[in-house]
Design goal:
The structure is a homodimer. By secondary structure, the first copy, chain A, is an alpha/beta fold. Chain A has two domains: 6-118 and 305-321, ATPase, nucleotide binding domain (Nucleotidyltransferase, domain 5); 128-301, ATPase, nucleotide binding domain (Nucleotidyltransferase, domain 5). The first copy, chain A, is built from twelve helices and 13 strands. In chain A, the strands form three sheets. Chain A has a five-stranded mixed sheet. The interface between A and B is large, with 55 and 55 residues.
């Protein structure tokens, strides 16, 4: 009987751990979600992952090709350790080695956004496309690039930090320390911050948004702004207008630089305001170089929260199961 | 006797045609420069090139691997024709076929900036580096990217339009039709335009620059501004301060997106103001993500005006002589 190659894919983020048994066609089962309690420290999180994995492996009738982990942080490409993860609060933390030792299985660790890009490329909106840019617009903004059929890695494994493209060098400060980054205009945290500032400066104009947030200024989030926008609130419209302009400026830069066939937009902000996509598409077609947009499509991401799990799992299947060189 | 593989490299720009006999080690001889008289139309320019090539070939003791042309325009990758060249005034112009027919030799045609990037990568400041970004800051700004040991091409052969990275979406109009492009702040034409505007608005402040230009406002060029800057003229300093900020914003975006090991800066503006490089380097180290700059070097381009000739010639040697797949 033909035994299918499979792997376990894990997406380890600042708020939750997603894992599942992933097949080579991108399908998955035995999905498992756990909260990431970062405050408990790295050892506790690693123990929790190992326990979940052991349970999952016990139920399996054949061994997996390995374990693939997409992790929200900078990964040492050779050691599979974590240089730095602001979301998890980790610094110079060993990871791959410990999992391999505990499970006696090969483990691959990559950045979570790169894992999600692989997922979308192989089994989502990027299927059978050799040139694409994925932009995930959530609380922060991250990205991944496939060019000429290969995912870009960069010299120190950090290519694709597309949220930190400067769109206005006179712009507001970003969490990265620079000013005017795309993320500082259009990331979820920036939208929330901008809304809170505007409400404080003009209580009357901010009333509707404040009401949606139950009267609590600190509860005014990007979601609240999206809700206000849908109800036609002028302040929310003003904020989203800026978000739109920043996203057009940023994506025009990306299209001119990478000349992708597809620009794939995902993440929580896009899920909350899917209508943004057609504005961005129209803006790009108007403002990017014609040569760079002749065949460009702007598409929504397809795999939602599971992109990272699928990408990390399939990376292991392709690399360890099918011996392809991906990274 | 060992016969070295060689090729003819051509750089066909809006003002001049450079060509030379190029060897696989990047050395060249029989350099020939002709003015490009764009007004005479494409047929005359092609005839001139063919005549020069025939002369060069007659002097040779062995046949070349082929002819490589870097051309200032958008090239059809498959046909080797020219979609559009604003500098030459060409539109949908056949090119490769006609040269091949006239010379009975294989011809490869690529964009001139990509040719210069190949030259710098193989035999200039990018030697033995797998991840680099070249930025050529002249009258316009163009670029090329090598990532993971391969030059990026994009879906429709136009990757690397790095001068049209938006650095300030509220910024001045660019020749490309968009606003706030890096080129619209730091390209030679933009520097000249900005200086002319400022002089007209304030004759007293503009006096020194106007004098350098022989009293003619239309002669105030980027070179004039560079000269004024060196003499300590306050207006020139103000303009170059903006140029510097724009270049830092743009290169920070590129470093965060591509994570290169080397950022190579070339072109006439850099040649006129080589001190810009250390400011850009310091700005990047301060503002780009730490993960993207751990091993970054910011270097001046090495091959000057000959980068395109060397790159186009060596592309032919690698591709046709050594059968490597480059593009």
């Amino acid at each position: 009987m033909f035994e299918e190659i499979w792997a376990i894919g894990i997406d380890l983020g600042g708020t939750k751990i997603e894992m599942a048994r992933v097949n080579g066609d991108g399908s998955y089962r035995q999905r498992l979600t756990r909260p990431t309690i970062a405050a408990r420290g790295p050892a506790a999180i690693k123990r929790e992952i190992i326990t979940c994995l052991k349970d999952m492996l016990q139920e399996a009738d054949s061994p997996p090709a390995g374990i693939g982990v997409g992790l929200a942080g900078q990964i040492d490409r050779h050691k599979g350790s974590v240089h730095f993860s602001p979301n998890l609060g980790w610094q110079n933390e060993p990871f791959r080695e410990e999992l391999e030792e505990a499970l006696k299985l090969p483990v691959m660790v990559i950045n979570d956004v790169r894992a999600a890009t692989l997922g979308e490329w192989w089994h989502g909106a990027g299927k059978s496309c050799a040139d694409l840019v994925c932009l995930f617009i959530g609380t922060g903004i991250g990205g991944g690039v496939v060019s000429g059929g290969r995912i870009l890695i960069g010299d120190s494994n950090s290519a694709g930090e597309l949220g930190h493209t400067t769109v206005d060098w006179h712009g507001p400060p970003c969490r990265c320390g620079n000013k005017g980054c795309l993320e500082a205009w259009a990331g979820g945290w920036a939208i929330a911050q901008r809304a809170q500032e505007l409400i404080i400066n003009n209580r009357a104009a901010g009333n509707a948004l404040l009401n949606i947030a139950g009267g609590k200024i600190e509860e005014v989030s990007a979601q609240v702004v999206a809700e206000g926008f849908k109800k036609g609130d002028p302040l929310a419209r003003q904020i989203i207008e800026e978000v739109k302009e920043a996203l057009i400026a940023g994506t025009v830069s990306l299209v001119n630089a990478f000349n992708p066939q597809r620009l794939i937009l995902g993440g929580g902000v896009m899920a909350g305001l899917p209508e943004l996509r057609k504005f961005i598409e129209a803006g790009i077609k108007e403002r990017a170089l014609r040569a760079a947009t002749v065949s460009l499509e702007v598409l929504p991401a397809k795999l939602g929260n599971m992109a990272g799990v699928i990408g990390a799992g399939c990376l292991v299947i392709q690399t360890l199961g099918k011996k392809e060189k991906i990274l």
